Amino acid sequence: QVQLVESGGGLVQPGGSLRLSCAASGSIFRINVMGWYRQAPGKQRELVAIITSGGSIYYSDSVKGRFTISRDNAKNAVYLQMNSLKSEDTAVYYCNSNIIGGFGRGDYWGQGTQVTVSA
């Protein structure tokens, strides 16, 4: 099986920074798209940023210019550097990966990590 483990969430003041990490483990042959989503209380889960295996990147308009997504293929990991954080960035952040492994191909989610931006 495959597991995604996230870390790096927490409480930060407006204008501050946090870095989220997500590592995939298990029977993995190849990881295609890796990305971050978030879900605020009472709202639907939304896409934050994604990065393909070739390095193409997409950001939602709400985080463009403030967040940076990157990946380390050797470590099967994806990162999200979040700068200039705003209160509206408060949410549970989820890692997502499309993975080809010994089991076939599938989409996997991390357990989520809470990010709270508050004074």
Rg over CA atoms: 14 Å
Average pLDDT confidence is: 96
Given the helix and strand composition, which structural class is it?
mainly beta
Task: Determine the oligomeric state from the structure.
Answer: single chain
Number of helices: 0
List the helices and strands and how they pair.
Layout (H helix, E strand, L loop, with lengths): L1 E6 L2 E3 L5 E9 L1 E12 L6 E6 L5 E3 L7 E6 L4 E6 L8 E11 L2 E6 L3 E5 L2
Describe the structure concisely:
Helix content is 0%, strand content 61%. The chain has 119 residues and is an all-beta fold.
Task: Provide structural commentary.
With 119 residues, this protein is mainly beta. The chain has strands at residues 2-7, 10-12, 18-26, 28-39, 46-51, 57-59, 67-72, 77-82, 91-101, 104-109, 113-117. The strands form 2 sheets. Strands 2, 4, 5, 6, 9, 10 and 11 form a 7-stranded mixed beta sheet that branches. The protein has a 4-stranded antiparallel beta sheet with strand order 1-3-8-7, with no helix packed on it. The model has no long low-confidence stretch (mean pLDDT 96).
